[in-house]
Specification:
Mean pLDDT: 92
CATH superfamily: Flavodoxin domain
Number of helices: 7
Number of strands: 6
Helix content: 25-40%
CATH class: Alpha Beta
Low-confidence stretches: none
Strand content: 5-15%
Radius of gyration: 19 Å
Length: 244
């Protein structure tokens, strides 16, 4: 397989960074090809703005989707966007590695979606969901949190993980990916804090990395999450009611 890791953490030696390094080592040892898109190290600008487009279709008003469509069709996308799209096109599996910040994804990753998933090129009114551009490719979100797993339940102080990740995962499905159930590493913020001793944290750290490798070892047989498709909606996008 061709594997792409998209890393959204500002510290390369962080646990998120180490999970990417461990995953890369595992896949390469198994004979797969691996690329890493470290968004912070690349200095990726997550802000969609007029300055991203050298030759505007409309100089008087900035309409992001119109400019994306024009830039894609005229072959004038920004180099960093072309680079990200080309890596996605090469990948059979895309692993999004990030911490849960403010009950969501880091801003750099949300902005990555805003800029990289180009309107008129990677999606259109009909090229979405189970007819999406990346149909046949797989994607998984690997996330970390300082809170324990027990907090991520209905009514818990962490919130339900499925709700936290819904927007990101549904966006991936919107683009045609087969979205695999997420992988979560909990309780990883103890290092450098007073929550646990360094020795205890290192032991936990090793266990969490091993859990990640075990997940990757079976990922090719994982069953994607179930989402409704075009045949499940009416012309208004509402669920079709079952016939009596």
């Amino acid at each position: 397989m061709n594997i792409l890791f998209v890393l959204a953490h500002p510290e390369p030696t962080s646990f998120n960074g180490q999970l990417v390094a461990a995953g890369k080592e595992y896949f390469e040892a198994a004979g797969h090809n691996v690329e890493v898109s470290d968004l912070y190290s690349l200095g990726f600008d997550p802000v969609e703005k007029a300055e991203n487009y050298a030759n505007r279709v409309n100089e008087s008003e900035f309409a992001p989707l119109a400019e994306q469509r024009h830039a894609y069709k005229s072959g004038q996308l920004a180099p960093e966007i072309k680079q990200q799209i080309e890596m996605l096109e090469r990948a059979d599996l895309v692993v999004f590695q990030f911490p849960i910040w403010w009950h969501s994804v880091p801003a750099i990753l949300k902005g990555w979606c805003d800029r990289v998933f180009v309107s008129g090129g990677l999606y259109t009114s009909k090229m979405r969901y189970d007819a999406g551009y990346f149909r046949g490719k797989r994607a998984i979100c690997s996330v970390t949190s300082g809170a324990p797993a027990e907090a991520f339940v209905a009514g818990g102080r962490g919130g339900e993980l499925d709700q936290i990740l819904w927007s990101m995962q549904f966006s991936l499905y919107y683009m045609g990916f087969d979205v695999l159930p997420p992988h979560a590493s909990y309780g990883v913020s103890g290092h450098g804090y007073s929550y646990v001793s360094d020795d205890a944290f290192e032991k936990q750290f090793a266990t969490l990395k091993q859990n990640w490798i075990e997940r990757l070892s079976t990922i090719q047989s994982d069953t994607p999450m179930a989402y409704p498709g075009w045949d499940d909606w009416d012309d208004l996008g509402q669920p079709k009611t079952a016939k009596a």
